């Protein structure tokens, strides 16, 4: 699909480098070695500077939102399963991930409120056009994409959503199962090791070069989490449970940590706009992708629910009372966390997002 000329021009401007080879120099040297005063203006674009400021500010906001919502989700999920006895790991995962589908209608509502002077039909048409052009940008930037993907971007999107959702579902299921098997310290420490695996997967999938400073930074961050998690482990409640169930929970969340790192990198590689895309476009497309993951979860991943019920592994039970209230809070917190975290990855990188979230 062809892109509008204005869109191409905006994206070219937003991808200009912040610094050029001679920025900041008041003189230059000509071919004969003579110093010549520069008369031209500096090539730094004010539009580029403002776009980068907006990107950094938005990334900081998304980081704060993701941290706060993750803590709230973790605490409510543990309380629901351990104290209230509603131990439905897969059902809880299905409900929380399925709630992401409402991010797109919420986003459209915000756009409608901000642009009330535009007829809704025109607003929706413009919104869909922006999403399709962003998907075209992703396909054009991916050198490994096939011509068939470029010709049929919807099927590419559906295939990528299925792949990313599969990795996320397995990783998320391990987290919800391990909540009731291991201690909160183990759960936090091992799960946050996904930052290391995100960097490991970034090398072959995102073509990142191994750098000593990045490796050291990731290792320091992971060690810091381990120290915080185990440095003051005086709570007797965290010592409850047999060693076998704790070991099994730790191994399970270890697998989830690997898959969550893979999920982050796959999302960045397959479903993120290229570097230099405006922050507003990145946010809109990221929320849409998150909503697509939620829709895929609701439409496809309900199938294991009756199977788990019939086999007796996880009987289906509608939550009531306090359980229903706290579950609603946990679902809302997870939607906020996931939406903000995917935006953070889109604006930065999987490694930086994971390390920052530690």
From TrEMBL:
One of its GO terms (cellular component) is membrane. Residues 1-44 are annotated as: Disordered. InterPro entries: EamA_dom (IPR000620), EmrE-like (IPR037185), Solute_c_fam_35_mem_F3/F4 (IPR026505). The chain crosses the membrane at residues 56-72, 92-111, 156-177, 189-206, 215-231, 243-263, 284-305. Keywords: Membrane, Transmembrane, Transmembrane helix. The keyword Membrane applies. Residues 20-43 have a biased composition (Basic and acidic residues). Residues 89-229 form the EamA domain. PANTHER family: SUGAR PHOSPHATE TRANSPORTER DOMAIN-CONTAINING PROTEIN. This is EamA domain-containing protein. The lineage of its organism: Eukaryota, Fungi, Dikarya, Ascomycota, Pezizomycotina.
């Amino acid at each position: 699909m062809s892109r509008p000329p204005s869109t191409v021009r905006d994206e070219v401007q937003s991808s200009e480098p912040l610094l050029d080879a001679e920025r900041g120099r008041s003189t230059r040297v000509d071919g004969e070695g003579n110093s010549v005063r520069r008369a031209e203006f500096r090539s730094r674009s004010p539009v580029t500077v403002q776009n980068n400021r907006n990107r950094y500010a938005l990334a900081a906001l998304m980081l704060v939102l993701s941290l706060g919502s993750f803590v709230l989700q973790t605490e409510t999920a543990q309380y629901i399963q351990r104290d209230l006895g509603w131990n439905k790991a897969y059902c809880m995962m299905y409900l929380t991930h399925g709630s992401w589908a409402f991010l797109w209608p919420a986003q459209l509502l915000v756009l409608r409120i901000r642009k009330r002077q535009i007829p809704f039909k025109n607003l929706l048409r413009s919104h869909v056009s922006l999403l399709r052009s962003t998907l075209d940008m992703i396909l054009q930037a991916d050198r490994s994409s096939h011509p068939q993907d470029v010709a049929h971007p919807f099927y590419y999107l559906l295939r990528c959503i299925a792949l990313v959702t599969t990795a996320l579902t397995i990783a998320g299921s391990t987290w919800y199962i391990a909540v009731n098997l291991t201690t909160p310290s183990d759960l936090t420490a091992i799960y946050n090791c996904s930052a290391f695996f995100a960097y490991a997967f970034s090398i072959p999938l995102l073509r990142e070069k191994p750098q000593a400073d990045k490796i050291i930074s990731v290792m320091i961050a992971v060690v810091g989490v381990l120290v915080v998690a185990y440095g003051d482990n005086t709570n007797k409640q965290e010592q409850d449970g047999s060693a076998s169930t704790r070991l099994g929970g730790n191994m399970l969340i270890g697998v989830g940590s690997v898959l969550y790192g893979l999920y982050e990198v796959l999302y960045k590689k397959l479903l993120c706009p290229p570097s230099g895309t405006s922050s507003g476009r990145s946010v809109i497309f990221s929320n849409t992708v998150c909503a697509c993951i939620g829709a895929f979860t609701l439409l496809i991943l309900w199938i294991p629910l009756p199977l788990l019920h019939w086999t007796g592994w996880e009987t289906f039970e509608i939550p009531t009372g306090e359980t229903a209230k706290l579950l609603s809070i946990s679902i809302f917190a997870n939607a906020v966390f996931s939406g903000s975290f995917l935006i953070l990855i889109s604006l930065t990188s999987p490694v930086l997002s994971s390390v920052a979230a530690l």
